[in-house]
Design goal:
The chain is 15% helix and 30% strand. It is globular and about 75 Å long. The N and C termini lie far apart (48 Å). Pfam families: TAXi_C, TAXi_N.
């Protein structure tokens, strides 16, 4: 795999021209439209089964990311046609607009690059791999290859990068080695560039991006919003960013909301927000855990009853295992198996008077599922996450139950390891996904190191 990636990289490096970058203007906040990628499966069971399996696959790689001195291992979002949230960014001089998946679970910003970009196994519904929009470095006067001794090379490839062809003064003529990003169901590979990122309010020069030439099952670029030094928030010097995820209940696919980036501490303070401090993962064994946004869930309450969850799953230990992260790239919330079993058992107990649909559970990968078609009214137990600091996220029912059939079958939209692969007890025990964040204003307050939220409609206008 690596050799085929590198042969493409050698070929495509001919298209990259190291030329000067452009200047910029000023601005303290930037607003970007945030859109839902459309649903493409007509069969709701097939859609939910894919989303459940994708959420579990992503959880596996968030929980056990690989480390390698010559590879960068991130966790990009799954293919764009299945409900991810996207933003458009303008890189280059003159600017070229590219669509990215917004991902708080990874840090590198990369895009499909050059006219010869190849995406293998990307024949998803509504996607023609030969028509994937790509960035063209040769058309940008601000494109520069990152040199091997550039500190930004180590941001991505680690401190053990070896540079050859160096003179006695240590000056090296070669570029930074190729990156290979491996994730749940595929990979991407390319070279690192320095580019200009333009907004109406301001332009940012010398922004590190990945120029990918070859991908497997990844037709869209990724805008990494994690805590790594190479992430967009870190490179732009953001003090805060916030978003509001419009409903993705398989409707309103043309509706968008805003992702807002803040670069100063004097921005307007939003009202009615509950805050919980970000947590640190004490582990030093896997640096990837430092990229995640950890929060502390103290209690999970179902229908007014506190679910009994062992402490080791709520707080990350010295080995790095346990705790909760917030991830815009996961669709359904992931719960470690003992946590999942406790939560679903409480739902099953409180809803035992409704008919269980075990066949649908097998079809969708979600559980429990109930047939409510003959019910005049349905009492769904309320689901509440209680965070450190007193913040409570009392979810509306549409954020944790999905109507999966016109015949009136609903399923709990949380997943665990019983659908795909063996149990993985490393890494975060709870991954709060985007489905549970629908119609919430969500704030990543980087200056004050805290996570904030409040319920609200996310439709613009």
């Amino acid at each position: 795999m690596a050799s085929s990636f590198l042969s493409f990289i050698t070929l495509f490096s001919l298209f990259l021209l190291p030329l000067p970058s452009s200047s910029s203007s000023s601005g303290n906040s930037i607003t970007i439209p945030l859109s839902v990628y459309p649903q493409t499966h007509s069969d709701p069971f097939e859609t939910l089964n894919f989303l459940a399996s994708a959420s579990i696959s992503r959880a596996h790689h968030l929980k056990k990311p690989k480390s390698n001195s010559t590879l960068v291992t991130k966790t990009p979002l799954f293919p764009r046609s299945y409900g991810a949230y996207s933003i458009s960014l303008k890189f280059g001089s003159p600017p070229q607009t590219t669509s990215f998946v917004m991902d708080t679970g990874s840090s590198l910003v990369w895009l499909p690059c050059t006219s010869r970009y190849l995406c293998s196994r990307c024949n998803f519904p509504n996607i023609d791999p030969s028509k994937i929009q790509t960035f063209m470095p040769k058309l940008s006067s601000s494109s520069k290859l990152i040199g091997c001794q550039n500190p930004k090379c180590k941001w991505v490839l680690g401190s053990n990068v070896k540079c050859n062809n160096c003179d006695q003064k240590g000056n090296c003529s070669e570029t930074c080695p190729a990156y290979i990003i491996q994730y749940g169901s595929g990979s991407t590979a390319g070279l690192l560039l320095s580019e200009t990122l333009s907004f109406p309010e301001k332009a940012f020069t010398n922004v590190l991006i990945g120029c990918s030439f070859l991908s497997i099952r990844q037709p869209s670029g990724i805008a990494g919003f994690g805590r790594g030094i190479e992430s967009l928030p870190s490179q732009l010097g953001l003090t805060k960013f916030s978003h509001c995820l419009v409903s993705r209940q398989f409707d309103d696919t043309s509706v968008s909301s805003d992702l807002v980036l803040y670069r100063s501490g004097d921005h307007k303070t939003e009202g009615g927000i509950s805050y919980s401090p970000f947590q640190k993962n004490p582990s030093t064994s896997n640096p990837a855990f430092k990229e995640y946004y950890y929060v502390l869930i103290r209690k999970i309450v179902v229908g007014g009853k506190r679910v009994k969850i062992p402490y080791k799953y709520l707080v990350p230990g010295s080995d790095g295992n346990g705790g909760t992260i917030v991830d815009s790239g996961s669709t359904f919330t992931y719960l470690e198996k003992p946590v999942y079993e406790a939560v679903t058992a409480e739902f099953a107990k409180q809803m035992s008077h409704y008919k269980r649909e075990f066949k649908v559970e097998n079809q969708t990968g979600l559980s429990p599922c109930f047939d409510i078609s003959r019910e005049k009214s349905v009492n769904f137990p309320e689901l509440v996450f209680q965070f450190k600091g007193g913040a409570k996220m009392a979810l509306p029912v549409e954020n944790y139950f999905a109507l999966v059939s016109s015949s009136g079958i609903v399923c709990l939209t949380m997943v665990t390891n019983n659908v795909a692969g063996p149990e993985i007890s490393t890494g975060p025990a709870i991954i709060l996904g985007s489905f549970q964040q629908q119609n919430y204003y969500v704030e990543y307050d980087l200056k004050n190191d805290r996570f904030g939220f409040r319920p609200q409609s996310c439709k613009r206008g």
